[in-house]
Specification:
- The complex is a heterodimer of chains A (306) and B (382).
- Chain A has 306 residues and is mainly alpha-helical.
- Chain A has one domain: ABC transporter involved in vitamin B12 uptake, BtuC.
- Chain A is built from 13 helices and no strands.
- In chain A, helix 2 packs parallel to helix 4 and helix 11 runs antiparallel to helix 12.
- Chain A starts with a helix and ends in a 13-residue tail after the last helix.
- Chain B is α/β, with parallel strands linked by helices and 382 residues long.
- Chain B is globular.
- In chain B, strands 2-1-3-4-5-11 form a six-stranded parallel sheet, with helices on both faces.
- Chain B folds into two domains: 134 residues, Response regulator (Rossmann fold); 148 residues, Rossmann fold (3-Layer(aba) Sandwich), CATH 3.40.50.
- The chains are: A mainly alpha (306), B alpha/beta (382).
- The interface between A and B is large, with 33 and 44 residues.
């Protein structure tokens, strides 16, 4: 019983990194910009967050530094693809590779550093309930923040005027432009917000999840987050569920191994990636389903006045 | 076929033969030139420092495997001073790049080259065949040549010592091991850790998870969390980072340092660090070359030679257990105590060592079973 409660807790924790990053990417994809640089953004932000935590001892400043680093890199990317109309996919890949190299180079001196003792969190009262206490109520505040974020984002996209404008820019930038909306600035804002959220996810990884810095420590989570937005057909609630699903598969494989279940561990290691491909295949087989939600101008540059 | 093309064919054949002859002559010359160089090196070293190079698989800042090797390099510098000149290249991948780096080391005039990971084996062997006047030392491999020998450390002795502490400190009776890659070396360490724990607490059980990488801190941490979820309260790892220790620290459990002293990464969780001192062997290897007594072979050093030790034992460990650790170490040093001595039963109930039978090195290097007390089955990929 207790084992399963702890598995649920670990799943929520593992899914949080993916959820925050994927929700961020959802924002810029809804505005029509694909940012393949997520992995690199998260690496730079993970380093920025870790370095800040080492020097200031504050986790919250670390999240702020991660968000700033992510936003800054995303802004550069945004200017490149929105004003200079460089290819979004190539620019994103370049950003990803740059982020990996730059964080490895700048982070050399932080590989030997350690953070002060990690605080424990629990919700008073609720944390002592049997089963649900250890399963749900002893998490880092960021875990709950990710859940709130998906609700807030759903409300923003479907219930607010600003969200409607954002989606309009993603569906038909020409129409939004004709109505007098500043398409490029809206897209840049979306890209910066997306980058900042990826940055928070990166900082969460290096400050809370695995409190250390090593080169390449994001280990593909940025790519999974990108796949997640497609997997969730650009819906915030589905992004959250998908993130927990992938987090759950990761944790379950160690659970099964420890219990001596006879599945080759190599097979279990590749499960999250296999799940990504499988889901992509499934939703691509149903074009109407995917078209309904996919921003129509996703990945396409916009030239005002053309 | 026209006459012209026939003629060009003959011409081509002629050129080919000439080129082959030239190449052969060239090779012959090279070997002749190499021989006097070897003979002369004995006198040259007195004037010029011996150049020694190290290739590391990870960054020296990994706090684990490569860090420990670099400490060995520094020990060589401290011992021999200006009689040696050492250099290193870090993060050399286990692939064709390794050959390029090692050839470069030879080209720079190094006369003794250390390759510190298993995956360099075949590349070192290739370079060794071309550079007869250079001595090659390869860690953890099994192929040797006239000018290439292997060395390794008995890490399982450190695992056993950690196990003695783990067996005493566990409250749940469940230990957890995060394994890297299921090769005999790692399986031997898991078994030895369990045997050590059973020596003080016969009812102890060990659970194992594999991450299938040597260095992937988030996965190592996830694996550790998985073990904690299943009731393991003392963790041990055969991976290269401090992530397992830090996960234990976060969860309020116990863990060990591996390869180097990791006490600072988990002040509350850290029970002890099982360390490898490469220094003694590196000093011997350099001395062998300086004295001209270097011979090929295979070395496997442990507690006895000072290559393996357990350090920074926590104050939480009872004094009685610390005494026992000292006793085991003394026994390993004078040969009165042997870890792998029968009766030892596998976890499938097979008696692998009969009563009082002592495992030889061949047995130890081929271990592919779990001893009784380890749960699950060795992954075979079948």
């Amino acid at each position: 019983m207790d084992t399963w409660a702890l598995l649920i807790a670990a799943t929520l924790n593992a899914g949080t990194v993916l959820a925050i990053a994927a929700l961020g990417l959802l924002v810029n994809e809804r505005a029509g910009v694909v940012n393949l640089g997520a992995e690199g953004l998260m690496l730079v932000a993970a380093l920025a967050g870790f370095a800040t935590a080492v020097h200031t001892g504050s986790d919250w400043l670390a999240f702020g530094a991660g968000a700033l680093a992510g936003a800054a890199l995303a802004a550069v990317f945004g200017v490149l693809v929105i004003w200079l109309n460089t290819n979004q996919y190539a620019s994103g890949l370049a950003l990803s590779l740059f982020g990996a190299g730059f964080s490895a180079f700048a982070g050399i001196r932080y590989t030997q550093e350690k953070l002060a003792s990690r605080p424990h969190f629990e919700i008073p009262g609720l944390a002592d309930l049997p089963f649900v206490g250890p399963a749900l109520f002893r998490q880092h505040p960021m875990v709950y923040a990710a859940m709130l974020l998906s609700v807030a984002l759903a409300w923003f996209l479907y219930r607010s005027r600003a969200g409607l404008v954002l989606r309009a820019v993603g569906e038909s930038p020409e129409s939004a432009h004709a109505l007098g909306y500043p398409v490029r600035r809206i897209r840049l804002a979306a890209v910066v917000v997306g980058g900042a959220l990826c940055g928070v996810a990166g900082a969460y990884l290096s400050v809370v999840y695995t409190p250390l810095w090593v080169e390449g420590m994001v280990a593909g989570k940025g790519w999974i987050a990108l796949a997640l937005t497609t997997f969730a057909t650009w819906r915030p609630a589905r992004v959250l569920l998908g993130a927990y699903l992938f987090g759950g598969v990761t944790m379950l494989q160690f659970q099964l191994q420890g219990e001596g279940v006879q599945i080759p561990s190599q097979l279990l290691t590749m499960l999250p990636y296999l799940a990504t491909v499988l889901v992509l295949v499934l939703i691509s087989r149903n074009p109407t389903w995917i078209r309904v939600n996919m921003p129509a101008s996703l990945g396409k540059p916009f030239f005002p006045g053309s | 076929m026209t006459i012209a093309s026939k003629r060009s064919l003959i011409r081509l054949a002629g050129w080919t033969a000439l080129a082959a002859a030239a190449a052969l002559a060239g090779c012959g010359k090279k070997e002749e030139a190499a021989a006097p160089a070897t003979a002369a090196s004995g006198t040259v070293t007195k004037a010029e420092p011996l150049k020694v190079a190290f290739a590391y698989v990870g960054p020296v800042g990994d706090a684990g495997w490569s860090y420990a090797h670099d400490a060995g390099r520094k020990a060589v510098e401290a011992e021999f001073g200006d009689r040696v000149q050492t250099s290193f290249v870090e993060s050399v991948p286990e692939g064709a790049d390794a050959e390029r780096v090692i050839r470069d080391m030879v080209g720079q005039g190094n006369k003794l080259v250390f390759g510190t990971t298993f995956g360099y084996m075949d590349y070192m062997l290739k370079v060794a065949a071309d550079s007869k006047d250079v001595r090659f030392e390869h860690a953890t491999g099994y192929k040797t040549a006239e000018n290439m020998r292997t060395y390794d450390s008995r890490t399982y002795e450190g695992a056993y010592l950690a196990g003695v502490i783990a067996g005493r400190m566990t409250k749940t009776g469940t230990l957890g091991v995060v394994g890297s890659v299921p090769i005999p070396e790692v399986i031997r360490n898991i078994n030895s850790f369990t045997l050590g724990a059973q020596s003080v607490n016969p009812k102890v059980k060990t659970r194992v998870v594999w991450v299938n990488k040597w260095f992937d801190p988030p996965s190592e941490g996830d694996g550790a969390q998985g073990l904690i979820n299943q009731g393991a309260d003392v963790l041990f790892q055969n991976t290269d980072s401090s992530a397992v220790l830090q996960t234990a620290e976060k969860a309020g459990k116990f863990a060990f340092g591996w390869d180097s002293d990791m006490s600072k990464f988990g002040p509350n969780a850290h029970l002890a660090s099982s360390v490898i001192n490469w220094g003694p062997y590196y000093k011997k290897a350099v001395k062998d070359v300086l004295d001209g007594t270097w011979k090929t072979g295979a070395a496997w050093w442990g507690v006895k030679e000072g290559a393996i030790d357990i350090v920074s034992i926590s104050d939480k460990v009872p004094a009685q257990t610390k005494e026992q650790i000292e006793k085991v170490k003394a026994g390993l040093k004078d040969g009165s105590f042997v870890i792998w001595k029968g009766p030892i039963v596998s976890n499938e109930g097979k008696e692998v060592l009969k009563k009082d039978e002592v495992a030889d090195d061949k047995f130890l290097t081929g271990i592919n079973f779990y001893v009784k007390g380890v749960e699950g089955k060795v992954p075979t990929g079948k």
